[in-house]
User: Which sequence fits this backbone?
């Protein structure tokens, strides 16, 4: 697999970078503070990793992971991402992002809103249902009996296939949750997000980083997606 660009060096971006390098996939990592702030991370990741600007990460390969807050999406290098498959992890958190009326009114999903900022990109919602510390815990080789699945959603079948290939290389099966308009099924507050992968799903949110991961096979994820009810975003809680 060619180089993977990763824009965002927070918990999810870093976890994906670590899994990618472990799987033999070169990465170019970027953040909003500049490549010089990534020296330590790239050093830990080893020779398969490089730091770059957001534009350099976007142009590094055909697949790019964007792991930034929703408020940072307008600053993504839209021109450089045009024509590329973009795996977006963004969630809407009103307490952090402020109120966004089309999302509050369920006129759009978060992924659809992100897509409007990235015209020409082939957007796939991915890596957005699992906490960063559970990503390495639950990663398993293809065919492992306790392998977990992650949902993907997108409007471009070819892009979803590329995303599924990457997710497989990183240690997970995938379940196609439908188009971007259906990606609410695995947004925060639904049965298919975050707590599904926690061994103690009732733990307080601030304790979830201490809770071990729970394998979720594809059939279990399909059930959770089917049972999902669209959350009232104005009342969203972690």
Assistant:
């Amino acid at each position: 697999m060619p180089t993977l660009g990763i824009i965002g060096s927070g918990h999810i971006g870093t976890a994906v970078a670590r899994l990618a390098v472990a799987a033999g996939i070169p990465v170019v990592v970027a953040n909003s503070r500049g490549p010089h702030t990534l020296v330590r991370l790239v050093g830990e990741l080893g020779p398969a990793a490089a730091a770059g600007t957001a534009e350099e990460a976007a142009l590094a390969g055909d697949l790019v992971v964007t792991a930034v807050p929703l408020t940072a999406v307008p600053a993504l290098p839209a021109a450089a991402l045009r024509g590329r498959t973009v795996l977006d992890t963004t969630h809407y958190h009103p307490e952090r992002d402020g109120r966004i009326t089309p999302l509050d009114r369920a006129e759009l999903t978060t992924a659809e809103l992100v897509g409007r900022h990235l015209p020409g990109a082939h957007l796939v919602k991915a890596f957005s249902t699992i906490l960063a510390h559970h990503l390495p815990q639950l990663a398993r080789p293809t065919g492992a009996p306790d392998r977990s699945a992650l949902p993907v959603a997108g409007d471009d079948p070819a892009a979803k296939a590329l995303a599924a290939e990457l997710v497989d290389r990183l240690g997970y099966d995938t379940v196609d949750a439908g188009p971007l308009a259906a990606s609410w099924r695995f947004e925060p507050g639904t049965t298919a997000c975050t707590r599904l992968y926690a061994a103690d799903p009732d733990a307080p949110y601030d304790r979830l980083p201490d809770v071990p991961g729970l394998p979720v096979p594809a059939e279990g994820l399909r059930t959770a997606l089917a049972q999902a009810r669209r959350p009232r975003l104005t009342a969203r809680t972690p």
User: Anything to note?
Assistant: The beta strands are 4-7, 27-30, 49-51, 63-66, 85-88, 122-125, 149-154, 173-176. The CA atoms of residues 77 and 184 lie 25 Å apart. The first strand starts at residue 4 and ends at 7.
